[in-house]
Design brief:
Elements lengths: L5 H7 L10 E5 L9 H4 E3 L6 E9 L2 E10 L3 E6 L5 H13 L21 E8 L5 E15 L14 E7 L2 E4 L26
Antiparallel strand pairs: 1-6, 2-5, 3-4, 5-8, 6-7, 7-8, 7-9
Length: 199
């Protein structure tokens, strides 16, 4: 029987829970590196784990067996920096995949061998001390959409931002497959110390 005692609830609510604003995103924008990414990506998601369903009928009933794993697209929200540097790099990354003027790719390297198009991106959940608690690696990312930025004479007290929709082949985490940088499944990522920018 569950207890109604608040002290028992508090004792099981380890470390005060997880805060959604404590996260960090890292990744390279195609061939362009940028140290602002961990600071200016203001929103993202920890990915869902989805396995399809196969229903097998038998005499009016159905049994449910696991199907195939699928991976939904991943969207990040980026604050527009004052020199438009990040926006320009995301647009240039998209243009390397297919140009705006012609239906061609300016990159003649085969798609399977070029880091100019495919990049691995990571998202880290941080604990309240700023240490990395959970990690996800998105393998083979490329931008399918760089969103519009709304402009309006009447808009005040706000900053411009845009979203980037990234397609990828699959994700892995520190508790599933071997993770980026050789982290073993189940490893404690907090040993790495606070994330950049932490006090």
């Amino acid at each position: 029987m569950a207890s109604n005692r608040l002290s028992q609830f508090a004792g099981n609510f380890v470390k005060g829970g997880i805060r959604p604003h404590l996260f960090q995103v890292e990744g390279q924008i195609g061939p362009f590196s940028d140290e602002k990414i961990p600071f200016l990506v203001k929103a993202a998601q920890l990915p869902a784990s989805t396995i399809g369903l196969i229903e097998v009928p038998y005499r009016g009933r159905k049994i449910k067996v696991p199907g195939d794993r699928t991976f939904a697209e991943w969207t990040i929200t980026v604050l527009a920096d004052g020199d438009f540097d990040l926006r320009n790099k995301f647009e240039a990354w998209s243009n390397r995949i297919q140009t705006h003027r012609s239906n061609i790719s300016p990159d003649t390297t085969p798609l399977t061998n070029t880091s100019d198009i495919f990049q691995d991106w990571q998202i880290f959940q941080l604990d309240r001390a700023g240490n990395r608690l959970k990690a996800y690696n998105f393998v083979g990312c490329w931008p399918s959409e760089v969103s519009a930025i709304d402009v309006n004479f009447e808009t005040t007290d706000s900053l411009s931002e845009f979203t980037v929709t990234l397609q990828y082949t699959y994700w892995e985490s520190n508790t599933t497959d071997s993770f980026v940088s050789g982290t073993a499944p189940g490893a404690n990522l907090g040993a790495g110390g606070p994330a950049p920018g932490g006090d």
